[in-house]
UniProtKB/TrEMBL annotation:
<feature type="transmembrane region" description="Helical">
    <location>
        <begin position="12"/>
        <end position="32"/>
    </location>
</feature>
<dbReference type="GO" id="GO:0048513">
    <property type="term" value="P:animal organ development"/>
</dbReference>
<keyword id="KW-0812">Transmembrane</keyword>
<feature type="domain" description="EGF-like">
    <location>
        <begin position="367"/>
        <end position="404"/>
    </location>
</feature>
<feature type="region of interest" description="Disordered">
    <location>
        <begin position="595"/>
        <end position="643"/>
    </location>
</feature>
<feature type="region of interest" description="Disordered">
    <location>
        <begin position="95"/>
        <end position="118"/>
    </location>
</feature>
<dbReference type="Pfam" id="PF00008">
    <property type="entry name" value="EGF"/>
</dbReference>
<dbReference type="InterPro" id="IPR000742">
    <property type="entry name" value="EGF"/>
</dbReference>
<feature type="domain" description="Laminin G">
    <location>
        <begin position="409"/>
        <end position="590"/>
    </location>
</feature>
<dbReference type="InterPro" id="IPR001881">
    <property type="entry name" value="EGF-like_Ca-bd_dom"/>
</dbReference>
<dbReference type="Pfam" id="PF00054">
    <property type="entry name" value="Laminin_G_1"/>
</dbReference>
<dbReference type="InterPro" id="IPR050372">
    <property type="entry name" value="Neurexin-related_CASP"/>
</dbReference>
<keyword id="KW-0245">EGF-like domain</keyword>
<dbReference type="InterPro" id="IPR001791">
    <property type="entry name" value="Laminin_G"/>
</dbReference>
<feature type="domain" description="Laminin G">
    <location>
        <begin position="188"/>
        <end position="366"/>
    </location>
</feature>
<feature type="domain" description="EGF-like">
    <location>
        <begin position="143"/>
        <end position="183"/>
    </location>
</feature>
<keyword id="KW-0472">Membrane</keyword>
Length: 666
């Protein structure tokens, strides 16, 4: 006879485990009538989980004021509902209880006994597998009270969980790791701090005399250290600190003879974004929170410089008790930070080679939920542009908010988050290059073209960039950039022609019919190396470009045509990759500066320019797919050495004469 047992199970994990074991018991009981029913789990206990509770291993709080117990893998729950027994011991006890004297157990076939054991072992193994992933227990709602019960990965450490007062423990994860066991890699762009977190950034440079700090933050609590640095670990001597005190922002600083404190007149807005600006010049400073007036103040004494030896700590401290007296707070910041800028440097909170973070613990990603409910189709990738905003980066051939529609292009249009990537100029631009472009901007800022040599924000590069409506042509040969800027801004939503050229250290720029402007690079290097790919309309990551390029925004507008060293770049045939590029709307519109054809507007560059230059510069064949020109025989027979610190005077003079005679793109 099979007995029916009714057990109230709340936890989905426990429910599934119990169903598997009860199913196994039911099969055995059906075949062997003498086997008694066994109760595998007790009903839920009243109350909540706590360190002195009855559960031997694990405790799960339910939603109706009750809790249940569970066991680590390799153990099963005893009949009392809270003790845990090893699998082998539990099997033996149950076997002894079931096989009573004078029972008719002998009627059970011997083959069934072996099936019973093997079947039960399979069930127990399946239970084990359900609660483990990658060799580690995976109890999503589990509560741990002993560090012996958990193993933190990637250098994480077991600490008491400060969010509770019942001695629970958790893993404290290093920078770049997340998850309960620190098992998940994490990229932090907009950090969220928990009150015991911090990020360490490089020591401040060139801030001893004056500094301007802008920080945008979203506090969740009205107390905590937001930012600090100084001379000593305990902040004795010189230091600065930005602290939340009962909701008001305090800027505390000491130049060595006594601290000054400036406090905001209004409190921060909790759970909303606040903007704080602080400016210090010597012993004087002012603070401005959101739209309130600037609050002035000064430190004591006559010293006006601050010595910074510590790293710059954001969101908290490795030892909050050590700085609490000077910072006037015993808590770290709780909330998110989306922007930190000091003396014009905007910090990147990532921990890899592209970011500024050098250390930290328990730092989460503030926008971790932004993309969780967003689906980008057709291979698109969701990227958080802020803690509240996302964008789908659509591959070529698709467009839309979710990359849901097909979109081909003949004239590429860029939306401020787009780019096209092509094979770079590599070694074919050592001494000379020429770029012609036809473009129509919709916004006054954005990069039109970039080609670099390294991914560490250093080294050789060329860039053509829109800055407040002006065109900036920059190139760096390794010893300092040349910065050549147009005389007048370009008109938005109109087509324009651009021509840049460079020979040795000298460069020239002309926009439409504006006067030609020129400039030269710094130092003694004369050759240019560009080993990376060439980008149009944007870059894949602004942190990968040279800091001397001053690129901060992607281009918004259309690029109709680009010719590099006399060779037309074929967009569709030569593109390597790209995102968020569609066909240019209203591409037949004519500007006031050019004539329209019946088909489309394409202002033509002077043929004399390329033909004349090709006759002046004949050379061996070059390997770049972007160019078919080459340098003169004199240059090829006597190549310029970057470390020779010699100018190629003849080449510069010859190019200068050529520019004056032939530089006319119309």
């Amino acid at each position: 006879m099979v007995s029916t047992i009714l057990i109230r199970i709340k936890s989905p994990i426990i429910m599934y485990i119990s169903l598997l074991i009860l199913l196994n018991c039911t099969i055995i009981s059906t075949l062997g009538e003498s086997i008694e029913p066994e109760i595998l789990f007790e009903a839920a206990f009243q109350g909540e989980c706590h360190s002195n509770g009855p559960c031997q291993h694990l405790c799960f709080d339910l939603h109706d004021g009750t809790f249940e117990c569970a066991c680590h893998p390799g153990y099963i729950l005893s009949d009392n509902g809270y003790s845990c027994l090893e699998n082998s011991i539990a099997q033996e006890k149950r076997h002894q209880r079931k096989m009573k004297p004078n029972s008719s157990s002998s009627s059970l076939p011997s083959s069934l006994s072996s099936k019973d054991l093997s079947g039960r072992n399979r069930v127990l193994q399946e239970v084990n597998d359900l609660t483990r992933f990658n060799g580690k227990p995976q109890y999503h709602d589990a509560i741990y009270y002993s560090c012996e019960s958990i193993e933190c990965e990637a250098g994480g450490s077991c600490v008491e969980n400060e969010d509770y007062h019942d001695h629970r423990v958790r893993c404290r994860c290093p920078l770049g790791r997340g998850g309960f066991f620190c098992e998940k890699p994490m990229e932090v762009r907009f950090p969220r701090f928990r009150g015991r977190s911090y990020l360490a950034l490089p020591t401040l440079r060139d801030a001893h005399k004056s500094m301007k700090v802008t920080i945008e933050f979203r506090p969740e609590y009205h107390e905590g250290v937001l930012l600090y640095s100084g001379e000593n670990q305990n902040l004795e001597g010189d230091y600065i600190a930005i602290v939340l005190n009962q909701g008001f922002v305090e800027f505390r600083f000491d130049c060595g003879m006594g601290e000054g404190v400036i406090a905001s007149e209004t409190p921060v807005i909790l759970n909303s974004w606040n903007r704080l600006t602080i400016y210090r010049d010597g012993w004087s400073a002012w603070l401005q929170l959101n739209q309130e007036r600037q609050i002035p103040g000064q430190s004591q004494g006559l010293f006006s410089r601050i010595t910074f030896k510590l790293e710059l700590f954001l969101g908290g401290s490795p030892n909050i008790s050590l700085i609490s007296a000077r910072a006037n707070s015993r808590l770290g910041f709780v909330g998110c930070v989306r922007k930190l800028e000091i003396n014009g440097h905007s910090y990147d909170f990532r921990s890899d080679s592209r970011g500024d973070a050098i250390d930290g613990v328990d730092t989460d990603e503030c926008n971790s939920d932004v993309c969780s409910n967003t689906s980008c189709l057709n291979g698109g990738q969701c990227v958080a542009t802020s803690p509240e905003r996302w964008i789908c980066m659509c591959p070529l051939g698709f467009a839309g908010n979710h990359c849901e529609r097909r979109s081909d292009f003949t004239i590429p249009s860029f939306n401020g988050s787009s780019y096209l990537q092509f094979t770079g100029l590599k070694e074919t631009c050592l001494s000379f290059f020429e770029i012609q472009m036809i473009f129509k901007p919709r916004m006054p800022n954005g990069v039109l073209l970039y080609n670099g040599n390294r991914l560490d924000a250093r080294g050789d590069f060329i860039s053509i960039n829109l800055v407040n409506g002006f065109i900036e042509f920059r190139f760096d040969l390794g010893s300092g950039p040349a910065i050549i800027k147009s005389r007048e801004p370009v008109e938005l939503n109109q087509w324009h022609s651009l021509l840049v050229t460079r020979t040795g250290q000298q460069g020239w720029l002309q926009i439409d019919n504006q006067p030609i402007v020129s400039g030269s690079s710094l130092g003694g290097y004369t050759q240019l190396s560009l080993s990376l790919n060439l980008f149009l309309g944007g870059v894949s990551d602004v942190k990968d470009v040279s800091s001397n390029s001053a690129i901060s925004d992607s281009f918004s507008g259309c690029i109709k045509k680009i010719t590099i060293n006399g060779r037309l770049l074929m967009f569709l045939d030569e593109v390597l990759s790209g995102v968020n590029v569609i066909d240019c709307p209203n591409r037949h519109h004519c500007s006031n500066h050019h004539r329209c054809s019946t088909s489309s507007f394409v202002p033509s560059f002077s043929s004399s320019s390329s033909s004349t230059r090709s006759t002046k510069l004949s050379s061996p064949s070059l390997s770049s797919p972007l160019t078919s020109i080459s340098s003169s025989s004199s240059l090829s027979s006597s190549p310029l050495n970057k470390r020779s610190f010699r100018k190629s005077t003849d080449s510069v003079i010859d190019s200068s004469r050529f520019i004056n005679n032939h530089f006319n793109p119309f």
